[in-house]
Design goal:
The structure holds 2 protein chains of 2 kinds. Chain A is mostly helical. Chain A has a domain of about 170 residues: MetI-like fold (Orthogonal Bundle). Helix content of chain A is about 75%, strand content about 0%. Chain A has 13 helices and no strands. Chain B is α+β, with helices and mostly antiparallel strands. In chain B, strands 11, 12, 15, 16, 17, 18 and 19 form a 7-stranded mixed β-sheet that branches. In chain B, strands 1-10-9-8 form a 4-stranded mixed β-sheet, covered by helices on one side. The longest helix of chain B is centred in the N-terminal third of the chain and has 29 residues. Classes of the chains: A mainly alpha, B alpha+beta. Chains A and B meet through helix 2, helix 4, helix 6 and helix 13 of A and helix 1, helix 4, helix 8 and helix 15 of B.
Chain lengths: ~300, ~575
Amino acid sequence: MTKYIIRRVFYMFITLFLIATATFFLMKTLPGSPISSASKLSPDQLAIVEAKYGLDEPLPVQYGKYMLNLAQGDLGNSFYFKGASVTDLIISRLGPSLILGAQAMILGVSIGIILGMIAALRQNSIWDYGSTFLAILGISIPSFVFASFLQYWFAVQWEILPVALWDDGWKSSVLPSIALAMGPLAISARFIRTEMIEVLSSDYITLAKSKGANGFEVAFKHAFRNAIIPLVTVMGPLTAGLLTGSLVIEQIFAIPGIGEQFVKSIMVNDFSIIMGTTLFFSVFLIFMILLVDILYGIIDPRIRLSGGDS
Amino acid sequence: MKKNKLVWLLSLILILSVFLAACGDKEEVTETPATPTDKEETPVVEDVEEEQVLNLMMGAEIPTMDSSLVTDSVGFDLLNNVAEGLYRLDENNVPIPAMAEAEPTVSKDGLVYTFTIRDANWSNGTAVTAGDFEFAWKRAMNPETASEYGPYMMSGVIKNATEISAGEVDYTELGVKAIDEKTLEVTLEKPVPYFLSLMAFGTYLPLNEAFVTEQGADYATNSETLLSNGPFVLEAWDGTGLSWKLVKNDQYWDAETVQLTEINYDVVKETATGLNLYKTDKKDRAGLSGEFAAQYANDADLEKELESVLFYFKFNQERNGEATPLANVNIREAISKAYNKQDLVDVVLNNGSVPANYLVPKEFTFDANGVDFREINGDLGGFNVEEAQAAWTKGLAELGVEEVTLEILGGDSDVAKKMDEYFKAQLQGNLPGLTITLKQVPFSVRLDLDTNQDYDIQSAGWGPDYQDPNTFMNLFVTDGGNNMMSYSNPEYDKLIAAAAADLATDPEARWTALADAEKILLAEDFAIAPNYQRGTMLLVKPYVKGVVSHSFGGDFSYKWAYIEGKDAQ
C-alpha cells in the first residue's frame, strides 16, 4: 500500500509538470496582453512595462523562470491585482468555495443515495418515477436557472434567506449550496438506482434472502456496498469540481470564491493567476482520484491496489 | 462478519473525512478579513439626524489603489473619493481648486504653473506638501514603477515626459518641482488648454513619500497600506476581495462638507442579483443592463445618465496590404447613412444611449461660458436611405463591381451580437448588392485584429482620458496609434496639430479648428461612422441625494452626498 501510494505521488508530480508546461504555452497563445492599456502606449512605453514584468524575454526563458519559481513553491504575483501574491489570492478565495462545495456534496450525495435506493427498492412504483423525475430535473435544469429560481422565491418573495453576498454567516451559504447540490444529487440517484437494481437481482442477494435476511438488511448490508462502487468512481472528480468552485453559482450569489476568479483571470490575461489556479485544480483533482482508488480497496477488498506489480 | 463491519465503518469514516477535512479548512479561511462581518452598528453622527450610510455595488474588484498604477474605472472611481489632487471636479463637472489653495499663477507663455498647496493633512495626520506631488508624478514616470497611465497621461503635457518614456532623459528631470513645502512649480512641454482638468485625474494625485517608501512593494495593496487625503478613507479591503468600505476621513480639510459616515461596497457581477439586492433594500443603487431596461422603464427610481463614451464604425481602407472597397469615399458615405440609429438605441440597446451623428460627445466639454462643444457642429450627417443609395450606386460604379462583401468585426457580448445582427439587416436591406459577414470576438482579440488592421468594418468605442475634444479628435491622425485603418487627410492632420500647438493659447480659434476637423472626418471623408453615445440606466433609492456623476476620471463623487428621508419610508 505505502509503495503504491509513493509511486502514485511520483506520477502525480510528472502529471503536474506536464499540465504546467502545457498550460504555460497554451496560455501564451491567448490573444491580448496582461497589460490593460497596452493599446494606449507607445512602443517605448510598452517596452518599459513589459520589461518590468519580464514579458520581454523569449518564451523559453520565461518558462524556465516560472518553473524554477514553481519548484520553490512560488506562484508569483498577479498582473491584475497589482502586487498581490497568487498564493494568498487562492487561499483567501478558497474558503467560500470549499464550504459551498462540501455542503453541496454532502447534501446532494446523501439525498441522491436515498432517492436512488427508494427508486430501486420500489422499482416501477410511484416512488421510482418520482425520484427519477427529480433526478432528471436536477440534470437538465441548468444550475443558474435553478439558482435564480431559489433566489427569487426564498430571498426576494419570502425573504427567508439573504439574496446574495457572503456576509450573513451560514445563512449566506444555504441557497448556493442547494443550487450546487442538484448536480451531485441527480448523478448519485441515477447511479445508485441502476446499480442497486442490477445487484438486487444477483445470486448472492437471492442467497441472502433465502437465508432469511430481512429486506432492510439485504438492501443496506449486502446490496448497497456493491452498488456504491461506481458512484465512488465519479465522486472523486465531482468532489474536486465542486470544492474548487463554480463560476455560475459564485457569480449569481456574489460569493468571493475561486471559480469566479479562475474565469476572470483568463478574460484579463492574468498569466500568473491562470497558472496558479490551473495547478491548484489539478493537484486537487489528482489527489481526489488517488483517494478514490484507495477507497476502492477498502469498500471492495477484491480490488487490489498493488495491481500491475504481479 | 465483525471484520467486515469494521472495514465498512472505516470506509465511511474515510468518505466523511474528505468532507470534514474540507469543512475544517473552511473555518480557518473564513476567519481572515477576506469576508468582513459588517454587522456592526454604524455610529450615528450627532448633528445629522439620519444614519448617513450608503450601500453600493461594483461590477468588478479593485485591482490596485496605487494612483501610479491604476488603469481601470473601479480604481479611478475610488481614488476620486479617497484622495484629492490639485483640482477636483465639482457638481457641474468643472475643475475647482482642491489641494491647490487657489487658481495657480501661470507664466505668460502658458508653460509654467505655480500652485500653492492648501493646509491639508493625510489620514495619518502629516501635512500634504508640494513635495508629495513632485514625488508622485516622478514616481509615475520612473521606469521602475512600470506605470501605464503615467507616461500615457504625462507625455506631451509635462516637460520632459515624452523624452523620459523614450528613455532619453532620466525620470528625475520631469518638469515638476517643489519650490518649498507649499509651493509647486509645474513646467509644461507646450501650452495645454485642458491642463487644470487633468489635475483632477487619478494619475496626478499626490503621494506621501515617507509612507510610500516605508511600505515599499506593499503600498496600496490593501487598506492598511494606504493613506488618504480625500473625503473618505478605504477600510476592510484585503487587496483582492469582493467587499470593502469607505469611511469618512476626519483629517480631510473640508470634512465639514462630507455628510456620509460610511459607504459599504460589494462586488456583484450579475445584474439580476444586483436588482434583487436593490429590491430587498440591501443596496441603494443598481445598474440596469439591456434586458432589464425595458422591465424597469417606468420605475420611479429610474435614473438615466449619458456617459462620455462614443461608439462608432471604423472603416478599414487597407487590409493585408490591399485596398478594401472602403477605400472608396462613396462606399463609406453610403454605409454611414444606411442604418437607422434611433431604432438602434430604442430597440436594440434600450439602455439610455442616444444616437450619435458626431464624434465628440454631448455634455462633455464646455467653453469658458459653459457652452457645449457640440453646439458648434451639431449633427453631422445621419440616417438617409436616398443619399445612402445614391452614394452606393456611385461607389459601386467607381469600383466597377456590382456586389461587395464586407465583414463587421464586433464584440462577443449578447448586446454586441444583437447589435451586429441589426447592422447586418439594416445595411443589407438598404444597400443592394452588399453582403455583410459578422465576426464576434472577445475584446482582447478585437484589439489584436485592430492592431494588425485585419478587419473591414469594426464596431469600436472610445472613452475620454481628459476633458477636451482632443481626446477624441486626435485618434485618427495619419499613422496615429489608434488610426489602424489607413485613413489619412493632411488637412485634418493640420487642424489637429494646430489645436495642439499654435492655437493652444487661443481657446476660441482652437475649438473652431477642432470642430472643422470633426466635419472633415465625418461629413467629408466619412472616415468613421458614429453610432451612439452610451447611456446608463440606474435604479437609485429616492433618499440618496447629492451624488455627483462625472464624465471622465472617477465615475462618482460622494463628497456632497447625503441620505434624506430614508427613515420616513
